[in-house]
Amino acid sequence: MRSSNPVFSRRGFSRDNGYAGFNTAPQAGYAQGNPYAQSGNPYAQNPYAQNPYAQQDQQYGAPPQAPVTTGRMTMDDVVMRSAMTLGTVAVGAVLAWALLPVSTTSYGLAFGSAIIAMVLALVQSFKRTPSPALILGYAAFEGVFLGVISEMYNSRWSGAPFQAVLGTMAVSGATLLVYKAGWIRVTARYARIGMAIAIAFVVVMAVNLLLVAFGVAEDGGLRSFGPLGVLVGIIAILLGAFFLTLDFKQIEDGIAYGAPREEAWLAAFGLTMTLVWIYVEMLRLVAIFSSND
User: Fold this and answer.
1) Most buried by CB count within 10 Å: which residue of 10, 42, 211, 246?
2) By CB neighbour count within 10 A (0-12 exposed, 13-18 middle, 19+ buried), where does 46 fall?
3) From the CB of residue 156, how many other CB atoms can be counted at a distance below 10 Å?
4) Could you tell me how far CA 215 lies from the centroid of its own chain?
C-alpha cells in the first residue's frame, strides 16, 4: 500500500517492503485478515521470508525480538517524533506571528519560507534515509509560513486561526477514531479510488490557478468565497482525512513489520505535512463562513 504522501510513497511502510516483527511474529490469522494477502504479496504467508531485518536476526541464531530491544519503530517513537516536528511548526508559527507584522515584506518572507520548506520536503522525500535536520528544518520554515498567513487571516477574520486549529484537531481525532474502530478499512481498492480523486482534485486546482493567474477566472474561480469555494474546501478537508487514514495504515504496518526506529521520523514528517494541508484548508473554510456572516 502506498500513501499519497511523498514521504511514504518514497519509503513507504508497505508490506511490500517486508518489514518484520511486532513483538511476536504475525500469525496466519493476521495475514488472512489482511486485504493484501490476496494481492500476490510474497510476504503474505511468511513475512520473514525475504525480510532483511528478519535475516539479520536469524543469522545470529536468535528469533526476532521485540521492537523495544532491537531498535525497531514503536508507536511511542512515532508519537515523540511527531510531537517534536509539530512543536517546531508551532514555535515557528508563534514567532512569525509575534515578530512579523502584516505587511508586504512579511508576505514575501512567508512565500520564501514556503518555497524553502517545499525544497527541504522534496530533498527529504528522495533521500534513502530520514534526516532529522531536514525534517525539523522543513517544520521550522513551514511554521513561519503558517504564522504569517494565520496572522493575515486573523487581521481580517478575528479568531479564524484558532477555529482552524480546533477544526484540524476535530478532523484528525475523528479520523483516528473511525480508523481505530474499524469503520474504515484501508484496502487497495480504497486507496486506488481515493488517490484517483486526489489526483483529479490537484489537477483541477492547478488548472484553476492558471485560469485565475491569466484573468480568465474571476474572484478565485473555484476558490472563490462563495458556495463553490465552500464545496471545494470541504472536498479538500475530506481528502486530508483520507490521507490521514493512509498514513495511519502505513505507520501501523511499519510497526507490525519491524521498521527501524529512525523511520519514526518519516512517520512524523508525513503526518505533519498532512496536518498542515488540513489546517490551511480549514483556515480558508473558516474565512469563507466568516465572510458570509
Assistant:
1) 246
2) middle
3) 11
4) 33
